Amino acid sequence: QGVLLAGLGTFGTVREPLRLDTDEVLEIRRPVFHMDMDMVWLQGLKYRKVTLPGEMAIKPLDLERLSRATSYSQQVVEGCVEETIRLFSSHMRKKENIAFAFGDVGVLARQRDKVHMRFFAHCTQWLEGTASLIAGLRS
């Protein structure tokens, strides 16, 4: 399942083969981020274009669940998410270098003429469960 942050992008996973030296092929899940910002802001920027699988169910960020996890009201959580996206967008519009950390997921950053999402190793390891060594190598 993918998670949509409206005005920013979608977090999801893709399955891909990992070829080992032993000619063995393992299928792993890799986290991805698909930018979904106004293309005018992205003009002249380099970023990895990600295609999410067509069969992937994409749902909006579960603000109610996030509210329960943080002990803040759903209205406060919603306001924080909206303001964070607006702040990031504002820096993008002004062509400023910026980095936003997403909890245990990773960092979305603009550095000079590049925008990239760097996932934390423990996020990738969590996706792979027992295959943490392989997941760590992939991150």
From TrEMBL:
Might you report a single GO cellular component term? microtubule organizing center
The record's annotation in InterPro entries points to: CCD81, CCDC81_HU_dom_2
Against Pfam families, the record matches this protein to: HU-CCDC81_euk_2
Q: Which residues form the CCDC81 HU domain?
A: 58-130
Provide the transmembrane region boundaries: none
Full protein name: CCD81 protein
Native source organism of the sequence: Nothoprocta pentlandii
Encoding gene (name) = Ccdc81_3
